[in-house]
Amino acid sequence: MPEKKEIVINTGPLLSLIAATGNLLILRELNYEVWVPYEVVQEMEMGGQSGFGLSQFHAATWLKKTSSSTPISPFLANVLDRGEASVIQLALDKHIPTVCIDETVGRRIARLSNLQVTGSIGILVRAKKEGILPSLKEALKKLEDHGIWVSATVITAALREAGEEL
């Protein structure tokens, strides 16, 4: 079995992966060891008005959810929301090379912090290429059905990379 790849994940990608696939098993099937900072756990627990994704989040008992708040550097705290800042800080503190963040500013700051960055679409493309996800096009449609917006440019590039056409 291939070695597990550690990754720290933010709230947005968790919700997007649940919307696209119905659960978080895709992360496990891709052999990720997934860390979820306490702040992201709290965001998921708040769940908005609908509580979307909460049951799937709880069902993923293999996630490494931290149980205490992450001390966040003043720089990260001033430029990012708590979830993104805690994702980057936890990755830096635990020497985890990769983060999963969808928001543009968070991705930029992660790269400036010398972290590798992926997002929910990157995870879906990898799953499609590895034969885990039957159809990227269908997964992207489910995102749209759940009100999760992805730019046409990103959709086109993702479908091309995954070997699917528009």
SSE arrangement:
Blueprint: E1 5-9, H1 11-21, H2 25-29, E2 32-36, H3 38-46, H4 54-59, E3 64-65, H5 74-79, H6 82-94, E4 98-100, H7 104-112, E5 116-118, H8 120-129, H9 136-145, H10 152-162
Parallel strand pairs: 1-2, 1-4, 2-3, 4-5
Helix pairs in contact: 1-8, 1-9, 3-6, 8-10
Which structural traits does this protein have?
10 helices, single chain, Rossmann fold, globular, 166 residues, alpha/beta
Describe the structure.
This protein is α/β, with parallel strands linked by helices. The chain has one domain: 5'-nuclease (Rossmann fold, 3-Layer(aba) Sandwich). Helices cover 54% and strands 11% of the residues. The chain is built from ten helices and five strands, in the order E-H-H-E-H-H-E-H-H-E-H-E-H-H-H. A five-stranded parallel beta sheet has the order 3-2-1-4-5. Helix 1 (11-21) crosses helix 8 and helix 3 runs antiparallel to helix 6. The chain starts with a strand and ends with a helix.
Overall geometric form: globular
Low-confidence stretches: none
Annotation, overall tally of beta strands: 5
What is the CATH H-level superfamily? 5'-nuclease
Mean pLDDT: 94
Spatial order of the strands forming the largest sheet: 3-2-1-4-5
End-to-end span in angstroms? Answer: 34 Å
Helix share bin: 40-55%
Task: Give me the strand/helix succession.
Answer: EHHEHHEHHEHEHHH
Going by CATH, the architecture would be 3-Layer(aba) Sandwich
Supply the helix-strand structural class: alpha/beta
